[in-house]
Amino acid sequence: MIPVMAFVPAAPAALPRTSYGGSRTSCSARASSFTSRGAFAGARARPSRAARQVVRAAVDNGLAAAAAAAAPKRVLVLGGDGFCGWPTSLYLSELGHDVIVVDNLSRRKIDLELECESLTPIQSMTERLGAWQSVSGRDVRFVYLDVAHEYDRLLDLIIREKPDAIVHFAEQRAAPYSMKGSRQKRYTVDNNVGGTHNLLAAIVESGLDIHVVHLGTMGVYGYGTSGGEIPEGYINVVLPGGRQSRILHPSYPGSVYHATKCLDQILFQFYQKNDSLRITDLHQGIVWGTNTAQTRKDERLINRFDYDSDYGTVLNRFLMQAALGVPLTVYGTGGQTRAFIHIQDTAKCISLAIANPPEPGAQVEIFNQVAETHRVRDLANLISEKTGCEVKNITNPRNESAENELDVANRKFRSLGLNPTTLEVGLLDEVVSIADKYKERCDKSKILPNSFWNKTRRRECEEFGLSSFDVGAYSVAEEDAMLYSLSKGDVATMEKLRAVLKGS
């Protein structure tokens, strides 16, 4: 049994705050941070040497609760080359788990499609894994496999390796990319839903008892103001006739990407009910940060930093703009409230979920994997105060509420002892250590939006004007300013001149 640890909420002065009273334990639109302290409780039998190594590593990483229950496991990490998958794989390896990364490197291929690389210079998988072995003494294996389209190979891998847990990151993760066009929409559905179903079907066919840990999204709940706290996955309802039931929280996706996560939920519910699979679904907020304690050990282990309008989160785009010394572009009013969590805490939450699988036959376990919530304009103002950059509002390419509240329950991870990194504590370091350090690798033309939710949004963004987009937002970008002046603001002429310059 994992000891429940003390958890004391606190809010930094630089961001708007919400007061807490009574037994309230959720984070709201104005809540900013959480801190926790705790220690082991109760005596345990002396574990094996391997288990002691896991405990020691977990204690070193500040996870006493995880260490109390940890035991070495074989873990497949699907999508282990990606932004969340890579640091999670290293974190699990450092804890003593036998980690096998499974990936088809599709995210690297999308870099080529979008003509925009990670700001940080990420290495090949061979280079990455060799570097990890040299600095940690631990081996992480790699299997090149397309989960969505190579079912037989996936099944063979599961039967051969007999993993205790499978962490499922192998999904196209960007909402804007999923709305870019019909091809990207179809790819997102085929890859995400097909991959999830292949995984579940393969586990059933293998006959093995494997715990699935899936990275979902807070977006399954939708981002309209709900009028109350968003629970962790389930709500109690009274059906017609007075019968009481416990059902999944209604889904309200805001993009094709979010819709695939809603479909994942339905598949999980079915396979749990029909085949008693053990599944944990983590509804995660926006992940910020780049490196973890593990990826900092060697430059070759560095994690992705996406800053473009399709894959770059709102924070990454703001940080990139701040490093370049250009205005921070806020979509619409900036009244959108979103949940956030640091990349190191994502890895910690995955390890906690692995250490605490549902009992056989239990319903799908759902955690809200968030640390804090903020309005976009508050984040822009925070970064502006720290860096001196101007804030500019531009037309929103997304079809979403201009303003919303977000009150999120996150009791489960808090009770397990998670002590998250907050934006107030770690944000400025991210500007200096990543965005500013690698800013020469940035293609400034990729930051502003070029994926639109529908024809109306596209038209409104076009009517907003390229002069406001490029020149107003990028007054220090000499090339754009020159082209705008030469073309007298005519978009077609600007692009012709740009093509001539590239040709010369």
TrEMBL record:
Check the record and name the SUPFAM superfamilies matching this protein: NAD(P)-binding Rossmann-fold domains
Q: What is this protein called?
A: UDP-sulfoquinovose synthase, chloroplastic, SQD1
Q: Which InterPro entries match?
A: Epimerase_deHydtase, NAD(P)-bd_dom_sf
**Which Pfam families is this protein grouped with?**
Epimerase (PF01370)
- Region forming the signal peptide: none
Organism field: Chondrus crispus (Carrageen Irish moss)
Ranges for the NAD-dependent epimerase/dehydratase domain? 75-359
List, alphabetically, the Gene3D superfamilies matched. NAD(P)-binding Rossmann-like Domain, UDP-galactose 4-epimerase, domain 1
Family designation: Belongs to the NAD(P)-dependent epimerase/dehydratase family.
Regions crossing the membrane: none
